Amino acid sequence: MLSVKSLFQEIIDDDESFALFCSIAAGGESQGGWENARIAALVPPSERPLAPKIARHGADEDKHGRIFTALMRRRGLAPVPVPPDTDYTMLLERGGIGLSHDRLRAERTLTVQDVVTYLSHSRVTEQRAAEQMALLRRHFAVHPDIGRAVRMIADDEDNHLAYCHEELLRLARAGHGPAIQRTLRACALAEIRVYRDVSLAVMAHMGRILGWSRARSAVLAAGIHAVYAWERFAGWRRMVSLKTPERRDALGGPATAAPEYA
User: Fold this and answer.
1) Percentage of residues in the chain with pLDDT exceeding 70?
2) Is-above-0.70 flag for pTM?
3) Which of 40, 63, 131, 172 is a good FRET partner for 120, with 20 to 30 A between their CA atoms?
4) d(CA 113, CA 100)
5) Dihedral of the CA atoms 130, 134, 135, 137 (nearest 10)?
């Protein structure tokens, strides 16, 4: 029977597919860490109180990258090159979503609109990350090898999503509501396209590694296209709504330490 749990179990049981999965995840998290660190250094004076939270966000992302690398190391595996068609964060940037790396490399203070762009981009991508980690936590929270990492990363992603809601609501009350809604909608519609394309690419690479039949690959591809169709029709709206989170000031303290094996 083809299920999320059985599919992911197959991926983590094979060294080559596990190394690819962890390398893709580690690369995206490390890039997110760099981006948040640069944004924290460049926030405008009016948003300086936000800088420690952005830095904490970046520290969490760096930690996640180290965790995925450590999971490979525990199995005697080395990181592998990330295929360009699976690079979610880079493909989002190429699609004009979020703040470009050229902008972040420039030693020029960001504007409040840049902060709105950053938080809107994060609110959309953290929704995706939180949902993916919730799925893994549901099936693998007690797994002997990856359970601890899954629980920690899932909790961090919930914090990141709560932080984005809280800060965007603050900026909306300050008069930026229309700009926030426009930016959120653009980010969401672009993200679901990129997520579809990356999902298809990842499944194609995994299929080659694991020797999946054409029929199985076709079923998985059809499922990915069906998810995209639902998200394009209505699902994207869950990525643009804002509500006061249950977790308040979720990034108000220092980042938690990575597990000892990291």
Assistant:
1) 98
2) yes
3) 63
4) 14
5) 140
